[in-house]
Design goal:
Number of strands: 16
CATH architecture of the largest domain: Roll
Largest sheet: 7 strands, antiparallel
CATH class of the largest domain: Mainly Beta
Distance between the termini: 43 Å
CATH topology of the largest domain: SH3 type barrels
Strand content: 25-35%
Number of helices: 10
Shape: flat
Helix content: 25-40%
Number of domains: 3
Order of helices and strands: EEHEEEEEHEEEHEHEHHHEHEHEHE
């Protein structure tokens, strides 16, 4: 993410999303009633016979809409912003949807920019400097290729080997299976850390062939043994903190480790708190070391008060994405939890 312009007098910030992660960050920055400007396409206003209007061509224009709803569509890599046109050359008061993709700059005007939102922008800018991690979770007959995003993991390919007979039926089927994986993953992993994981020895064979055929591949290749393959194997590696420095420093890995630490404290009846009432009590006592908040809960007034209490007592907070397993586990606790300095009755 790049900050193109910021004006504290008008409370407007212009942002340029450079990755899909940035679109997710933007979706969590936007609130209902924000004024959002972006370039878009809309049909040219027909000022002719209104009884029999003709279908006119779409033209490019800059519109400002009063936001009603923001939707992050991971499947098509788009951010949909729905609202009423408040600023522009035509159709004021009518409904319009801004379709924001990577490379589409938007200007956001708020009545007030909360500190948590400014921190999220700062985090998104810093995240753009970190490498994306590519995963291959492989077993004998199936491989899943995924990438680590700020909001979680995105599965990009699923490759299967024709399961004829037991294990590898022929050497050619084995070769074709691995070649399909290599052809798909090498362009993605150029310059990015690559983690190959799963049960058995197929992962070692794949890693050997990648190094053999692409000795100049400028990527760190890490091999991890897990009890499962597929997305389940990737989540297993994250929970155990496996995968090398680049993986462990990724946002989703840090979120996963913190949520696992929380559940470990719960399991041992240690220093924890969850649920709004209990966490509020701990925050007012200055007992919170680290506050964990689900991204879908950040916009509420209650959470805003919690964040101010925690910051006032020199505690820290982490916003957890609801789009991966750690986020779903936190959601089961009400979306708000904390690791404590000391026990609070």
């Amino acid at each position: 993410m790049r900050v193109l312009h910021q004006d504290t007098r008008t409370n407007e910030i212009k942002l340029l999303p450079e990755t899909i992660d940035d679109l997710w960050h933007m979706s969590n920055l936007l609130d209902e009633s924000d004024l959002v400007y972006a370039m878009t396409y809309r049909r040219k206003e027909d000022k002719g016979d209104k009884l029999r209007p003709e279908r006119t061509e779409k033209i490019r224009m800059r519109l400002g809409i009063r936001l009603k709803k923001a939707e992050f569509h991971e499947s098509d890599d788009r951010l949909r912003l729905l609202g009423e046109i408040e600023s522009g050359p035509q159709d004021l008061g009518q409904h319009h949807t801004l379709m924001i993709g990577v490379g589409d700059a938007i200007t956001i005007v708020k009545s007030e920019w909360k500190q948590t939102y400014l921190e999220r922008i700062k985090r998104a800018v810093q995240a753009s400097e970190r490498p994306t991690v590519v995963f291959v979770a492989i077993e004998d007959t199936e491989a899943v290729i995924a990438v680590a995003r700020e909001y979680g993991f995105k599965e990009v390919a699923n490759i299967t080997r024709n399961p004829e007979g037991k294990m590898y039926n022929t050497k050619s089927s084995d070769q074709t299976y691995l070649e399909d994986i290599i052809n798909k993953v090498v362009p993605m992993a150029t310059g990015e850390p690559l983690v190959i994981l799963g049960p058995g020895f197929t992962k070692e064979t794949l890693a050997h062939k990648i190094r053999e055929r692409h000795p100049d591949l400028p990527s760190e290749v890490v091999i991890v043994s897990t009890g499962q393959a597929g997305m389940a194997g990737i989540h297993e590696a994250m929970k155990k903190g496996l995968g090398g420095k680049a993986v462990d420093n990724s946002r989703v890995a840090r979120e996963t480790r913190l949520v696992e630490e929380l559940f470990s404290e719960i399991g041992s009846d240690g220093l924890f708190s969850y649920g709004m009432h209990s966490v509020r009590t701990a925050a007012e006592s200055g007992a919170i070391r680290l506050l964990l908040v689900l991204d879908s809960c950040v916009r509420t007034e209650e959470v805003d008060i919690l964040l101010k209490l925690v910051e006032g007592s020199r505690g820290e907070f982490m916003i957890i994405s609801s789009l991966h397993e750690a986020g779903r586990k936190l959601e089961s606790l009400g979306g708000v939890a904390a690791l404590l300095r000391y026990r609070v009755e």
